Amino acid sequence: SSNRSIEKERTLAIIKPDGLFGNHSDRIKQVILDSHFNIAKETVVQLDEESAATFYAEHSSKSFFASLINYMTSGPVLVMVLEKENAVADWRHLIGPTDAREAKITDPQSIRAMCGLDLQKNCVHGSDSNKSAEREIAFFFKETSSDEAVANHDEL
Ligand code: RTP
Ligand code: MG
After folding, report:
1. Cα–Cα distance between 148 and 8 in angstroms, integer?
2. Which residues form the Nucleoside diphosphate kinase-like domain (predicted)?
């Protein structure tokens, strides 16, 4: 049908190490599906320092960078490509503010309020723009029909 030609917007979501350790994945995925996202691709990877630093390169000059890399490499992460209309903004809205402690006060229904701990351990990532989404999706997934994760991460 003609609907097939309408490309849904895509964003990259990550359930961070504290999210996986805390067994929040199933609950988060339920929120994702209840919010009418399609999970187009999904992989579990263990980031190494180099790949985490590349992924968060925009923060390389920040005081929290080393700590962020340590956190993001502390265990496996679940990476998903989410699809729907307005996916980037809608996913950012659903996850809530960066600081999970703030989220618990200002946005208690948000994923970070439900599953996050603080400013760093905030459980989930969401692309901040269409341009970031494109880069981040290409970072984790080859553009092939087999949806293989790229070779610089260890797929689990
Ligand atoms: P994300 O990129 O992970 O979706 O988070 P975000 O856009 O809400 O926040 P961003 O500013 O991009 O920060 C990236 C991640 O770095 C950690 N962070 N630590 N001052 C701090 O200690 C600090 N600020 C940020 C968080 O894990 C944040 O999600
Ligand atoms: Mg960000």
Report:
1. 21
2. 8-148
